[in-house]
Design brief:
The protein has 330 residues and is α+β, with helices and mostly antiparallel strands. The chain has a single domain, classed as 60s Ribosomal Protein L30, Chain: A (2-Layer Sandwich), CATH 3.30.1330. It has six helices and 20 strands. The strands form four sheets. A seven-stranded mixed beta sheet has the order 4-18-17-20-14-13-12, with helices on one face. The chain has a seven-stranded mixed beta sheet with strand order 6-7-8-11-9-10-19, covered by helices on one side. It has a four-stranded mixed beta sheet with strand order 1-5-2-3. The longest helix is centred in the last third of the chain and has 18 residues, at 252-269. The chain binds 3-(2-carboxyethyl)benzoic acid. The site of 3-(2-carboxyethyl)benzoic acid (3EB) has 12 residues, from strand 10 and strand 14. Residues 69-191 form the Chorismatase FkbO/Hyg5-like N-terminal domain.
């Protein structure tokens, strides 16, 4: 009997990572392209677009004109809504997003809990149930004192909402403040049919081991995640944290240098080649708009040719002035 094609193809390869890029274009144009999994606009100037793959991020860009961020896969994409949760999938990948209004969930703790409960239940019922990377954008993130700081309340709600969903290991993540409506929480994720490989940074205490001084509930996230085909490293929000302490308080340039040192250590730890290139889209979240030109200048020197989108975003520790995250393609 002749072996059929089906047999030869029965063992599908690992899904190739989505291509993440910035492009100066219109949402409608890229949403019409095959393989578009998600499209992000930035700030109040971005349009609202009625497509579950579209997300308008609350952070204001420092670049004008501002590109869109695109996630594209080499497969057909389907999309839909599940109540207030938006999703799309294709090629083994899943995008899911939810943007609860804190006023409808009893405040920041309730909204974070709700977001993570909804995402966990939705993703848990999908073939693409391995959450590899997650982003959290929080209004007025440093408002409130001590354990009442809004970031710490977010951490509390997140921990309740995720339950034991990440018992085998946390995804890579970013949690950054925005200056849009304070009650508007934005959470979105990238999940896959296959697990990735978590990467920690030898220069940093793993976040889930942070001591009590940073809050009752330690943040749960991996420093980075190698995606299943090992072709991309998804890099979590990275700042001037050494050990568990914030380094160079009050010194923007030293913090940025320390952050770049952390990124180099992370690439080494992930067995990735050193450095970033034109296919490594990064974001720089800058606390004080007045610092943005200096951050841009330093990054252009240190990471020539690397696409960096600069956003007005507050790091979750009020003494930290800048944070980077993004992607490193092998
Ligand atoms: C840090 O290194 C900076 O709470 O999900 C970075 C990435 C940070 C993710 C999160 C927090 C989070 O601790 C803060």
């Amino acid at each position: 009997m002749v072996q059929g094609c089906e047999d030869l193809q029965a063992e599908p390869g690992l899904p190739h990572a989505p291509r993440v890029s910035y492009r100066m274009t219109e949402a409608a144009v890229v949403l019409a392209e095959p393989g578009t999994l998600a499209v992000f606009g930035f700030g109040a100037g971005a349009p609202s677009v009625d497509d579950p793959r579209w997300l308008r991020v609350e952070q204001e860009p420092f670049d004008a004109p501002t590109p869109l961020e695109l996630w594209q896969v080499e497969a057909d994409v389907i999309h839909g809504r599940d109540g207030d949760l938006n999703w799309s999938s294709g090629g083994g990948w899943l995008f899911a997003a939810i943007e609860p209004d804190e006023r409808e969930h009893g405040g920041p703790v309730g909204a974070a809990r709700y977001a993570y409960e909804r995402l966990r239940h939705f993703v848990g019922g999908r073939a693409e149930h391995q959450v590899l990377r997650i982003w959290n954008y929080i209004g007025a993130i440093n408002h409130g004192d001590g354990d009442q700081e809004r970031y710490k309340q977010f951490c509390e709600g997140r921990a309740h909402g995720q339950g034991d969903f990440f018992a085998e290991g946390y995804p890579a993540a970013t949690a950054i403040g925005h200056h849009g409506a304070e009650h508007h929480l934005q959470v979105y994720l990238l999940a896959c049919t296959h697990a990735g490989e978590r990467v920690e940074n030898p220069r940093q205490v793993s976040a889930w081991h942070y001591p009590r001084q940073y809050g009752r509930t330690s943040p749960g996230f991996a420093r980075a995640m190698t995606l299943p085909a090992q072709d991309v490293l998804a890099i979590s929000g990275t700042a001037a944290v050494v050990g568990h302490a914030s380094a160079h308080v009050g010194d923007l340039e030293a913090q940025l240098n320390e952050t770049l040192t952390n990124l180099a250590a992370l690439l080494a730890s992930a067995d990735m080649p050193a450095g970033f290139d034109t296919h490594s889209p990064l974001k720089a979240y800058v606390r004080h708009p007045a610092d943005a030109p200096r951050v841009r200048e330093i990054l252009q020197q240190r990471l020539p040719g690397v696409p960096v989108l600069m956003l007005h975003g507050d790091v979750c520790r009020s003494e930290l002035l800048v944070e980077l995250d993004g992607w490193r393609y092998a």
